[in-house]
Amino acid sequence: MVGANNNLNIKGQIISGKFGEIIARQKSDQEFELGEILVSENDDYKIFLQVYDLQYGSQISQQNLELISGMSLEEDTDFEFMDKNLRNYKIALLKNLISVNKNDSKNVMMSKSLPAMFSTVRTVTNDDLSFLSKPKNPLFLGNLRSGSKALDVPIYLDGEQVLTHHVLISGTTGKGKSVLMSNLLWDSTGKDYNGILVLDPHNEYYVGSGKIGLKDHPSKKVLYFSVKNTIPGSKSLKINIRILRPAHFGCLDFSDAQEQAMNVYYRDYGNKWIDSLLLEKPIKVGFNDATINVLKRRLMYLLDIDIGDSQVFCNGIFDFNAGEATISTVCDGLEDSKTVIIDTSSFSGQVELLVGSLIVTEMFNRYKNYKMQGNLNDKPAISIVLEEAPRVLGKDVLEKGSNIFSTIAREGRKFRVGLIAITQLPSLIPRDILANINTKIILGTEMVQERQAIIDSASQDLSSDSRNIASLDKGECIISSNFAKFAIPVKVPFFDEFVKKDLEKVNNSKEYVGLSE
Known about the structure:
By secondary structure, the chain is α/β, with parallel strands linked by helices. The chain folds into three domains: 7-129, no CATH class; 162-232 and 332-484, Rossmann fold (3-Layer(aba) Sandwich); 242-319, no CATH class. Helices cover 30% and strands 27% of the residues. It has 16 helices and 23 strands. It has helices spanning 62-74, 84-87, 159-164, 177-188, 256-269, 273-278, 289-303, 326-335, 349-373, 390-393, 395-398, 404-411, 431-436, 448-457, 466-470, 495-507, and strands spanning 10-18, 21-26, 37-41, 45-58, 88-101, 108-110, 120-123, 138-146, 149-158, 167-170, 194-200, 222-226, 234-236, 239-240, 305-308, 311-314, 318-319, 339-343, 381-386, 417-423, 439-443, 476-481, 488-491. The protein is elongated. The two termini are 43 Å apart.
């Protein structure tokens, strides 16, 4: 019988099916799990298969099964038809993943053939996975997972490729999106190939939800901006109003008339357009008084400005007399491969997006210029972390016009600028943008509509994985990427455990190189 060795690891036997829907009977003393990876061998290849559905099988008719059940329930009779392990069993539906040449483990290809009929399927082992080697710029994502079991096999993708081609992190609340993001930030910080901008609405990444955060990162390549200035190492977040342009407000919900009024004031008054508008100085094109009044109120609220005695008074982070270099300092840090965290926990959602728009527009324009000059490839990749991504990438938002974030989603890869979009509602993001996001990290998602949106735009065929995605527990995910051979099931480590291992490595090394090195 094919694959009769490794008897201790045998979990079942292939009995029928078709490509992508292989049926295997479970061995009575074993247990199949959704998402479990199994291996079937022939003379030349190991064929990797994954469980995507489970069901019962029996040699006994349904009528007799109901009879046995009834006698057991109603008469308290232990009634069996022949040996229960032979007559009643469980069946797994398996899909093909990849085939690996036994004589050359680097020869990995998409599986295009069926395992032999009646061949056994066995548990995957670490030795089977030697082809999962580190790429040039390793980004650690977690350990390979088979069902609910995490294997001692770290999973890496090429961080430079992944980050420039956008990442989607999706999952229901409580499934581990923040822990995953904390791990990614810790691992990528200090690497020369990338700089990351984080708009942090919960102020959790730098300070840390526990005792450890990015403030403790041994590379020291972290910049932290906050209005509070109560944490050692933080920089004051002040932004000069003179650098604001009408285009920076494109990610906010202004009407066409309001946008036109801003553009006219900018045309007539240059970098003094905001105070001129608030003081209602004359412009060459007239607008309805209601339009100007509403626009004034919105700008005063957004920028935290008061008007009195024909003067403008600033109360918040936006100021006429400070913060001239803040945006440049942030962009310089990103260009120096640093992780830059902006504490937006005290801001409204619109102020957070305005600050993000300012920084991202400046950074994107820099990189477009570098491409024109021919030295873009000498620069690190830039990635922008967006919590609640549909606020700027949602269908309803983009129907009113594009913004800098949607521009990057569609064009950023050409300029080495990418997004990390975090959401529990991917269905709100247009399909063309989802298709442009080449790496999707899928955590547990119970809602059918959200699962389907991910499945429809995944890099690999996940059409049979809907139940698998719904059953993912906290910290379990599936990674579908253009830069992976197959959709990889992963277990995300707890942040504190992950950092502890990294810091232990630092203590044994003269300089920081990170877990990925």
